[in-house]
What we know:
With 192 residues, the chain is mostly beta strands. The protein is 2% helix and 19% strand. Pfam families: Pentapeptide, Pentapeptide_4.
Amino acid sequence: MSQIYISDQDFQNINFNDQPLQTGEYENCTFRNCSFEYTDLSDFSFTDCEFIGCNLSMAKLVKTAFRSIRFKECKMFGLQFNECNAFGLSFTFDGCALNNAVFYNTSVKKTLFINSKLIETDFAECDLSNSVFKSCDLSGAVFDRTNLEKADLRTSFNYSIDPSLNRLKKAKFSLAEVHGLLYKFDIEIDRS
């Protein structure tokens, strides 16, 4: 099956369940207020694209390539980023809802997560070294054998990270949220 190549296009207010996007390679495209909910984006390639105000919840991402992608104010529940094409996988999330997303065993170094909800997101065995979590809600997020070396979580909150199970060398945390690193010891921390 031959794939198409599309560059420098703007897609606005399209429900891709009603009008399926053609499988292919999309470069330097903008998707604004589009719905990809439950669509199959397997084998698509997106490079230097922006998704703004889109709903990508439960989209299928088998071998999907995301290279230098910016997601802004997108709803992205349950996405399986671990099924994406690993080559060049890179993105930024700003104001997104990534609840129940799976990054299991992915290498997404230097990723920016800004003002995003990462509730019950799976980061087990993920390489998040040098990543920045700025003002993110990490309630119930799973960190297990995760590389967080040099990651910055100073302004994020509600995380529970076991230092004995994760790599944290030179990671940055705020004193106000330090209990998220000590929860397993069942000690009481006076916040006064």
